[in-house]
């Protein structure tokens, strides 16, 4: 299915319609990697890069024929760079970044600096994640093991036309490995690191008969963590999972085949705890059971407070445990030659997904009972001796149905039309803090929501002249939402100490909305190897509801639902195959504006308490430049590089949140009378580095006649500029830039049955954070004094150097 070498003046080569249909039906993974030295040696005149194919337009196309900025990671590239989870993909794709919250379930994905920075289940993400054409209903489902992956496509800019409302900023499309074309084959992979991570995976794949093939995959992984909990001598901020996947394919006739893909995984991530890096002097008014104030040294006993501290003291666990059960059914019918639709294919994709997760956290970050806070003017402590915790459950059920009619890949006019339906239900329970202690931010609620979406979409490509093409897409989306929020009990954030709000039930009227999104692109082929393009596209994400503890404030409900989020984007780019197809270059400039951007931020009230509140920001903008290149410099040397310059800013937001120490909080809060906000216009989007780049390569060592093995060494360097850690623009949460260098080597037999790989991650031991926290210990001020400020950091997985070894065996 790869395109061959081109002849000058020949028409652009396209895949056959049957090949496209089969490729999508099998969820095929075509390599996006240079030929290895052994292949090139057999045909020296064919020394070139292999064609990269993508499915950005829901059909298999060469990357250089698609007028859009797309980054592709192949199976070989992911293995070479030890891609384990989504954050590793983000490390290798300059257009992506991640916002790490206080819990794993609050992590968010950003594309070109824009992403839903929220722990709120009442809104969808801005970046869609799809695995084998099936979307995740919640962003948190993506933060787990990436198993059995063959290819990852990063589609930048609004993708709402083909991928729906949750792709308003972009989409990450993952393709798992296909069923083998030959007899059954077993592959086993074993991975181990110097910091005690292990991964074991096995697959069995191939054809049992001419009409039936299958692929079975299972894996078990575990990483203890980055932080040492001195309280119970355990590790924290780790992850682990058990996964089972299957693909069962029947070819019922020459024109009809069915693919069934069940999946089960259970994961446990013990993040995102912060370790303290600095703290002010003094005695904080945290009380022990004798009502005696606790000193800093007592609370932090044994912890060596420093810039790169990895020691903590927690008496309650922190993490996210999730179980996911999913089933996909794909039916593909290729119309026979005798049909009026000869050459067309009709595809049905059905999916169901049930996800049950439990998130929990030590809410005071210490291991002493410290909830004896002042409750009246006399200063009498409450006497509560329970550790403050967070514990929440989320049950989501998603079902989807899609039909696609795809025209032949040949001809000057090609099209795809589709129907989409999805039902999504969420049920959430949440308990935080202690019932009689306001300082623990006590709240207890349950909430549920449901949405039903129907859409019709179309995408076309028209070669209207020998060197010119137009592409266009349109989507009509209808959505109905139901929402309720039940406060079981809470301590009001703005009332006097320990005044409970009591029980409250808010049921929103059903919301229905219609939306139309589209895209239009123009392509000019300078020759068979170079093209320029320009595109315009729009994105739309539906209304949002506040489904967090901030909704306990009755003023919040008066402003719900928040208006739909909308985007308008323009992009221009250049793509080229150079040096007789031994080098590729892709570059793009872009600008996207968002209106009524939905996000959460911490709201501080006049009484000193705080809560997460859902906001609608009038206007954002991201603009910049991206480029990536691959060069097969010699038969043995492959080089790659990618970079992105991004300026993601808040254009207009006069109702921005205050942060601790802010001196410009003078604007009356429209949601909470009596409290004040600040003008955050002009601020930077969080976790959106101005510069981000990656470059590396692989060198295959010269063959030795007496040794039937192929050896190679590889290296990868990535860097990024400093980032703002919070949309509030809190200067204490800024994080500096960094550069990380990885080194590796591999040796394999000539037949590819055995491969042994070695790696050193973060060779120069450059420490860096993926998240940081200001005043995360609740030290209270002494009489007449000021609060004791403390700061912490969340180290990245490779913030400290470690080594790895991996063995892959096929038999």
Characterize the structure shown:
With 811 residues, the protein is mostly beta strands. The chain has a single domain (17-810), classed as Beta Barrel (Maltoporin, Chain A). 5% of the residues lie in helices and 51% in strands. It contains 7 helices and 41 strands. The protein has a 22-stranded antiparallel beta barrel. A 5-stranded mixed β-sheet has the order 3-8-9-6-7. A hairpin with a 5-residue loop joins β30 and β31 (610-632). The protein is globular. Mean pLDDT is 84; it is low at 1-44 and 781-785.
In short, what is this structure?
Residues 334-763 form the TonB-dependent receptor-like beta-barrel domain. With 811 residues, the chain is mainly beta.
Q: What spatial form do the alpha-carbon principal axes imply? A: globular
Q: Quick one: CATH superfamily?
A: TonB-dependent receptor, beta-barrel domain
Helix fraction bin = under 10%
Task: Flag low-confidence runs.
Answer: 1-44, 781-785
What is the number of beta strands? Answer: 41
Report the biggest beta sheet as strand number plus sense, adding barrel if it closes: 22 strands, antiparallel, barrel
Strand content: over 45%
CATH class call: Mainly Beta
